[in-house]
Design goal:
6 copies of one chain form a homohexamer. The first copy, chain A, is α/β, with parallel strands linked by helices and about 350 residues long. Chain A has one domain: Ribokinase (UDP-N-acetylmuramoyl-L-alanine:D-glutamate ligase). Helix content of chain A is about 35%, strand content about 25%. Chain A is built from 11 helices and 13 strands. The first copy, chain A, has helices at about 35-45, 60-70, 120-125, 135-140, 140-155, 180-185, 195-205, 220-230, 280-290, 295-310, 325-330, and strands at about 5, 10-15, 25-35, 50-55, 75-80, 90, 100-105, 130-135, 160-165, 190-195, 235-245, 250-260, 260-270. A 9-stranded mixed β-sheet of chain A has the order 5-4-1-8-9-10-11-12-13, with helices on both faces. Chain A has a 4-stranded mixed β-sheet with strand order 3-2-6-7. In chain A, β12 (about 250-260) and β13 (about 260-270) form a beta hairpin. Chain A is globular and about 50 Å long. In chain A, about 60% of the residues are buried. The interface between A and F is small, with 6 and 6 residues.
Chain lengths: ~350, ~350, ~350, ~350, ~350, ~350
């Protein structure tokens, strides 16, 4: 099986300890992440040959970041080093009704300043059968948006499958373009899309039906049918079904759409949530895992959902669970029990 | 707008880490607090000019305490330094069904040994339009009770508004007087009172109706009407509505009484509670904030309740939230969501 | 009143911090435990003269372990020192739906290599009126199983009361014998048995009725009647009633059977669970406490259940609560309230 | 061999982490200590039957303190519980040229309020052959000074050996008496005295010769001869020889005087010092160990000095080293080497 | 006495724990600093009315930074908030022979993007008699260099005393100018200069004599005479005398030049150094303290040197010592002794 | 250039925090190490293609260990998984004159139970030009000794260079053989030997001259000449020159012997030592680095010594320094300086 390549920015995350405010913090926890990087780690832990394509500055933080990804088995040979800063964000961890807060600090990062010409794409994509990107990269800068379009076209020319997580971030998109100026041109090339209907409308300019709340996969069929109508290239669509009770308590299920049919995983209670961030990326990874391994879609949606649920029980952005770990909890087995 | 002055003892709190017992503790967390000091910090963070009047020993712990209050913007010029100990308490943090435990160690503190003559009250209260005290100070010693009466009378003579939080502490009141010997003489001067009906009866000797449980503001009207009948000087009364599910899980609402009418905030679930202490003080601060800024009472009770709810999501005694922070969660918005 | 002697292996537990995975751990928390040792500590804290009989290697970890037990008042004079390793296990702490994981590392331990001849039993048991063992010791090695039988017979000859916690551990029993080869021979001597019907069937080869779920003590009567029919020597039987909502949330009650009658404690919610391990041992200790002090069985089952519930609110394997601590929460009083 | 009883106040110490200032501290480390208690722990670890006689308040901190002492094998049966506070002190840890700072908070402690009548001395001292006290107790309050005289007289009547560490503390002695008013009356009964000549003059009103610096035991002979002349009851005298290079670097030796002769241990460099406090108490314990076990004085002074040196390599007030540990370093062996 | 205003960038410092490498770090310690800010804090702790003039982005980190400075008594009213990033740097703490490493991340900071027109200088400088700046600000960007020149000229027009710390940073000065293009124009206005001869030559283009090593103040006279010859406006010059034995061990003295005469403080050993950063700023603050309080220069150089030495014994960038703290160690008193 | 393969046991190390005793430890730090594994990590960080050949049990700790090695770039494909325990050791960190203590717990480990037949050596060694082993493996068990001989012979048949670190461990060698029974048969095949003369005599049964202390490389010539005489196959010999001042303070140099000539690195002071363990392995790695890259021996001995010195400035067993890091300190440059 060929590799899955992900392309996107690697971020340094500096987060407050457990439920502390910035105002109370004497130290910050250091994690490396980024939506696409998280997908790569999750895939590697699931046993998939996963590769990251990105750019970072040439300093000790980059060495630390790469060591972190290598530790989890990700292929980092195509993370190029050059000028610019290490993009970072500060995270204040929420608690109960108080939500988490993000302060982005990504200006002038090595990734934001990418030049479409500087990558050797046939080398970087060589041996891959899948490319994964997200809607965060084109939100960072015009350069990054241009590179996204380029990599997607090249991947298409290599007959690779292309997945995208829409991932709308309202605090980005500051360089003069709106999502709907950019995203439709990218999504035209996509085979597998992660995103809810409201985000799709916002980023693609579509007008598919939107509901307040999706209690089960079937609630999404109408919307995904409409999206499929507009973007007939989309072979698979999906999303996590998430009801936010509080920062520490979500009810989490999942849905996949294919060929006019919905496949769903029954929502389960997740409380306490140790770390919310990365839950969607773990679902994305689970979905890629199922599709690339040609699992049936019932298995795939349950696998992806349980990957997402398990992710929320550990700190950091990554789902560190193997295929066996995830399967051991599917179907409601072993939940919360001591294994001894 | 004039300053709000608070008068009361500043305490050093030494608490066990998260859910540890004293029996398991190799270190203790150090916080400074005290009901009135907590109100001052909360007010300062809300943007009110807040001042503390108190007395502490002349040592490095006092310097540390004052730096802590200055950090949050409280005016500490009238915290006098002199003889005596730094009053302190040890706190064992509860968990689930196991409640927290307090060991008071306030004997011979600088505050307990206060001499009513030693303060220059016109200087200390100068520029203030509001005085806040609580029922804890008169519980500490006869000296402290005497000074409370003096400061209240002087504040009255300056036409200041006077608020009091009844705050019954069964482990204090050890110097030979009962609450009902002292408190009625003080409450006669009070404009704004925080306290539930049972506590009012216990501390004031009144016999207003008491219910087992107050699910909404309206459940309190009869009791507050009766209290208003006995103490016609009380312009506003209020309390948090708290159902204790466990040490980590409360359901919290709020109520304000004015002019024979009740104003309420709908109870919300707070779990996990990071720190229960200071929740009432944050409500008191929110109530003062609303009244001094002439907000309507619907806003005020919701603002005070959300201040109290947010307080419980952070460690330490203080509500560190700005007006904007609190308002951003009022009306059920944004609860538990990541802001990014 | 005579002492309660417990016989079993003392383990070094190395556990991940709060909800961390092994894969995320840079340090491990060090606790000493073991089912029988936990019972001894719980009893000592309840005010019972408690003694441990065991064997450990002659090194600094053993000195540390013994200091830990002495700290809580356990008599450690009969923990013999000799050859072999310190038996240990690694514990990955679960969270939400993710269960805890145990990696046992007990091969070649001083206890597993015990020689039945090496203990001076009349000295070790002298002054005891009660012997407590568990089904874990005979699971470790043939030697350990042999010593269990020997100590039980000697205790019987001394007219001591004998209690046993069945405690099935599927990852042990590796030396060629099955539970049903060994346990019936031991349980024949037992007066007080802790265990659920399914475990009894598995370990004793009985076929008593088994239910999916025991919501109250009465649900157990039929099964315990049947067990009593097979093992008429069993004077008291009991178990905790536990519904596992998640790794952090159980609903916990308790049941005792005697003379054809059930005595029950109403299940209560325990969330968050700080540490699940040791909950059963605390119940066992509470049951021994009640029986040895000739308390009535209603008191005993409620005392044992509350001991178990409180245990789950603290880290480590031990219930560190005194009789007064436990009684202060019985009957639903004070749950989750601050005592100040 | 009979027990060694120590009489003195048990203190709760709250110290800053490593080199932090009070002004930088968010938490404090919790230790229990007190000069006489430290001697008891050191003796117990050396294998001597050691007992503490003292008084503490009846609360959870006392239970924690007693558990700590029991852990190290000290007999705590005669630590009486009653009214008053737990005496405590705050310690700011020094570093390099910056010295440590102590804030005493011992007013109104259970020990300071001792009544000479409240102890049953024949019970408390029963089975002891040695009593150890220090010059700190009579510095605390008149009551404490009175009890010191009483216990010393009773011990003398029981033919017990009496040791005293002069231990001058300039921040105590606040109740109206000077050391020279009290100490001579106590030292008249003492057999074994720890203290340097300058302290002796200050506390006893003697005028023995004082040197700036004692590089070896012999430098002390003239002073101790003179002290022996004034207090002919003193059979043994001794002190640590300490040159303070910085808070983290001392050069430490030791000296014992007996029968007109000096016995010395060669000074060694101790850097980094992990904890300076308790170094003198470890020497005292080592000296008692040697004398009670009838070791020769060359061994004794070297054993006591090495106990003191090892003490400084660990956190907390106690020397946690066994006889074998200490002996393994005597004579310059193994210093700083890995044992593997 | 008028205030001392400092102008410069406030930085967020993210440093590894004690001696950890970036490659080993799971968390970073958070401090706020910056050479001029450090001087302001040191002065405030010494009792001088100190003010910071700067610019930061409008976010929660800025609120945290300002609270930190307010805590220590610094006037933060003239720290303007606006666009741009929070300038930051990453610090890997060295140990023994391994030096510390700094990764600057100051591009596009609010300060670097300063517009000379945006400050209201008469308001910001109002009530000040002294302005302090450093050679770091003009190294950041042309804008910052321009603002430095403007503020210096305005301060001169207000007859304020002007001090500058040359502070060469080889990793800055990246915007196309060399120090010698900019610094002479600024230093022309300076009264009090901190810097060694080699740095002066490098930044000012002078050719004053340079020695390998300055063991005492007198070794500097020739160089400072020459510098005074070129810049006759310099009334006082000074520097710390530092011999670097290792990252944890320096020998530190100090020197001041005035009117052709040298004043020196004898070097002392500082080991272990808890934190090297901020040592020069503490000296600068001590020098300003002495001059503004019209102390003689022998006192001043000894005060400044001891401030610098004490700084190195605490974590973080700030000297948190009062005038009394510093004086208590001057003249070699109390070094390393416990104060109890 | 071909890979360097190391063969040896991978150990889990559980060590006390900084200077804590086992008796004081509530948690232990977790590191993975082992002499040969440490060499592999050091080489990988230096840029050499480094591979580990070993065996571990099939559990989560093994996954964690492998992730740790992958993070640093070591090839772990030939760490086989199977039955047995994870070999471990407990480390009590020494301080000042108190040495560190090791408790080995390696009985029944997967490595100790190795069967010489179970490895596919041509696969495992394929592509390697160098094999590194140490004298620890043959000390563990007869099986391990047998496998060592086998791998050495196969490596020889592949014309690989063979290096060995003698590494005597007195607490191992428990299976009935003495070093001199086994080691000569192995060393006969060795090209590059690390070890001091006394250890050589002890392990090889030679009688080469031994000195008390080696202050410079030349002091070793006579001994190494004699060893070369007995083992003419030894092309290079070497050792660190270490004077142990205390657990935290060593003076460290290095020596290499080749062709009858000595090459030395001047000893430097290393204080404080953050972690002593791994210092010799870093030297070994540096020596291999120099030889495999055909550096001259002056460079090589200085590179190896500086690698060893830098290793001691960081926690854990590994030298995490790149070639550039190490070279930047060679020749006495930059020692202890801040790089900013």
């Amino acid at each position: 099986m060929g590799a899955v390549s992900t392309f996107g920015e690697i971020l340094l995350r500096l987060s407050t300890e457990s439920s502390k405010l910035f105002a109370q913090s004497e130290r910050l926890e250091l994690h490396y992440g980024g939506s696409e990087a998280n997908v790569a780690v999750s895939l590697a832990k699931m046993g998939v040959n996963a590769r990251m394509i990105s750019k970072l500055p040439d300093n000790e933080l980059t060495e630390h970041a790469l060591a972190t990804f290598k530790q989890h088995g990700v292929d980092t040979r195509f993370v190029y080093k050059g000028s610019g800063r290490f993009g970072l964000y500060f995270l204040e961890q929420g608690s109960a009704l108080r939500g988490s807060k993000v302060i982005y600090d990504r200006a002038e990062s090595s990734f934001a300043k990418l030049d479409p010409k500087e990558f050797n794409w046939s080398e970087a994509l060589g041996g891959s059968e899948w490319l994964h990107i997200s809607g965060i990269s084109p939100a960072v800068s015009q350069n990054a948006a241009d590179v996204c379009l380029e990599v997607i076209k090249i991947a298409r020319s290599f007959n690779m499958t292309i997945s995208m997580d829409l991932n709308y971030r309202k605090n980005l998109w500051r360089y003069g373009k709106k999502p709907a100026d950019i995203m439709p041109g990218l999504v035209r090339y996509v085979d597998v899309l992660l995103g809810d209907p409201a985000t799709a409308n916002l980023m693609l300019g579509t007008k598919v039906p939107v509901k307040e709340y999706y209690g089960s996969a079937d609630d999404l069929k109408e919307s995904y049918d409409a999206l499929k109508h507009d973007y007939s290239n989309l072979k698979y669509m999906g999303m996590t079904l998430r009801e936010v009770k509080s920062a520490n308590h979500n009810i989490v299920g999942g849905a996949i759409y294919h060929d006019g049919k919905m496949y769903g995983a029954k929502p389960v209670e997740v409380t306490p949530i140790i770390e919310r961030i990365g839950g969607g990326d773990a679902f994305m990874a689970g979905m890629i895992y199922g599709l690339i391994n040609k699992k049936d879609l019932d298995y795939t949606v349950n696998f992806a959902t349980m990957a997402s649920v398990l992710k929320m029980t550990v700190a950091g952005d990554f789902s560190l669970f193997t295929k066996e770990d995830i399967e051991s909890y599917m179907g409601g087995k072993n939940l919360g029990k001591i294994q001894r």
